[in-house]
Automatic annotation (TrEMBL):
Protein name: FAD-dependent oxidoreductase
Ranges where the Amine oxidase domain occurs: 12-360
Domain of life: Bacteria
Lineage: Bacteria, Candidatus Eiseniibacteriota
Organism: Eiseniibacteriota bacterium
Molecular function in Gene Ontology: oxidoreductase activity
NCBIfam families xref list: PRK07233.1
Length: 443
């Protein structure tokens, strides 16, 4: 029997959940608080196209995501390109892409460089070791590469990715991240030829074709039980009933929505904070560097990293212009987060003028964006407290970034969380209604 299912959230987790639920034959309604779909994948209009608010790349190991891209008919648009990383140290950019680059990394003595070179192999060997869940990242790295290499290279890399709050994060997260990123001989990243707007648009039309009702600008304020059904209270006061609900918002929003449900401590008591992102997007006539990713933590700039998306995406997408993101991973309580768009852009423009003066003279467009809930700040032992997907069996499920650990927070990991949840959801919902919904019904 087809159930009436609600999905809360129209980011990748919500879109993938709605896609799978509708594929299994259910009547799905998706609620998204914002006026458009996409969550962190949303874009802004620029000339005759759309640019991403936040940079994204796809990796060859992102199999769950690539499968959905294929199902949405976008395989021909998936491009793979060699990309690289430059590391800015005391004003000089050091390429760090090959074993030879690492061996030639002059700021460190050769013994440290050799230890750094071995780290990738050790991460791959240790990424499945559950004991790393209880080891702080700094302790794990220092034991393997030494304190000097940690301070010179690894700490800036971690700050560029997580901000100062990297300190409490378990080593398991880093080992898993390194194993994900370095699984090919040469660093290759993927993107969609027409940009990620095409992914969201393809999701939207495919969902509509599968009969999904999309409710945009519809914020869910509370989830309650109503006999056998689940009731959603929307901003504005209306209430709607469903047989089952999948929530995909960040954990804090889920905890707020379910306050009246008296859930046990695995969901209601979990204290998981999130790191936010503040980001300046610049369209320029000249490139900054040949690199996709460049941490600049030690440069004295406001930003901690620079991502040059146009070193991955085809030039025709942006009329031959170059697109660079200046980024800070910052908490929503930080001073940087409080700055308005003009002030943020003034800071980031000053960074560009200092670090890349020639390119800075060719800026044709500048925008700034903030997202308060991006990177879950994993705590030691998180594997033991990660919230299960089945909250009220057959009725309420959670598929969110709070569950991607120890995988990195990515579109692919979100899709994997959904794939992990679906067999259980279908079995429990089927058992509840005696409907015998087939386990393999997800398509
Ligand atoms: C700067 C940056 C760089 C990144 N780089 C990469 C990358 O290179 N590769 C990669 O794969 N990933 C990358 N990511 C991570 C990726 O964006 C996330 O993993 C993914 O988008 C999370 O999707 P989500 O659907 O779980 O959450 P979100 O995208 O946050 O979506 C949640 C949605 O739920 C909605 N919502 C919340 N509460 C409610 C409510 N009460 N009612 C209705 N709707 C609600 C929100 O409005 C939002 O649209 C990056 C992220 C950032 C910010």
């Amino acid at each position: 029997m087809a159930l009436r299912a609600a999905v809360i959230g129209g980011g990748i987790s919500g879109l993938a959940s709605a896609w799978r639920l509708a594929g299994a034959g259910h009547h799905v309604t998706l609620f998204e608080a914002e006026p458009g779909l996409g969550g962190l994948a949303t874009t802004f209009p620029w000339r005759d196209t759309h640019l991403e608010r936040f940079y994204h790349c796809i990796l060859p190991s992102d199999l769950a995501l690539v499968r959905i891209i294929h199902e949405l008919g976008l395989s021909a648009d998936l491009l793979w390109r060699p990309t690289g990383m430059g590391f800015m140290h005391r004003g000089r950019i050091h390429p760090l892409n090959t074993p030879m680059d690492l061996l030639g990394f002059a700021p460190l003595p050769i013994t440290d460089r050799l230890r750094l070179g071995l780290l990738g192999l050790r991460a791959r060997a240790e990424c499945a070791d559950p004991r790393l869940d209880d080891v702080a990242i700094e302790d794990w790295l220092t034991a393997r590469v030494g304190a000097r290499a940690f301070r010179t290279l690894w700490e800036p890399l971690l700050v560029a990715k997580l901000g100062e709050r990297y300190r409490g994060v378990p080593a398991l997260w880093l080992a898993s991240r390194m194993a994900r990123e370095k699984n090919t001989e040469r660093e290759v990243k993927g993107c969609l030829r027409r940009g990620y707007r095409s992914l969201i648009d393809a999701f939207e039309s495919a969902l509509v074709r599968r009969g999904v009702t999309l409710r945009l600008g519809a914020r869910v304020e509370a989830i309650a039980r109503e006999g056998e059904a689940m009731a959603l209270r929307l901003a504005g006061g209306a209430t709607e009933s469903f047989d089952l609900v999948v929530a995909t918002s960040p954990l804090g929003a889920f905890q707020q929505m379910t306050r009246g449900l008296d859930l046990d401590a695995r969901w209601s008591g979990l204290a998981l904070d999130y790191q936010g992102v503040v980001c300046g997007v610049f369209v320029l006539e000249r490139p900054l560097s040949p690199w996709y990713w460049m941490p600049v933590v030690e440069s004295g700039a406001t930003c901690q990293g620079v991502v040059e998306m146009s070193n991955l995406t085809p030039p025709e997408r942006t009329h031959g212009m170059h697109v660079a993101y200046l980024v800070n991973y910052a908490h929503r309580s930080s001073d940087l987060f409080a700055l308005d768009e003009d002030r943020l852009l003034a800071r980031y423009r000053a960074d560009l003028e200092r670090l890349f003066p020639e390119a800075a003279r060719t800026i044709v467009e500048a925008r700034a964006f903030k997202a308060p809930f991006v990177e879950p700040l994993w705590t030691l032992g998180y594997s033991r407290t990660s919230p299960p997907a089945s909250v009220i069996p057959g009725r309420l499920y959670l598929a969110s970034t709070a569950q991607v650990y120890p995988r990195v927070n990515s579109w692919n990991s979100c899709c994997e969380v959904v794939e992990d949840m679906m067999p259980r959801l279908l079995a429990e919902a089927g058992a509840r209604d005696g409907a015998g919904i087939a386990l393999g019904a997800a398509s």
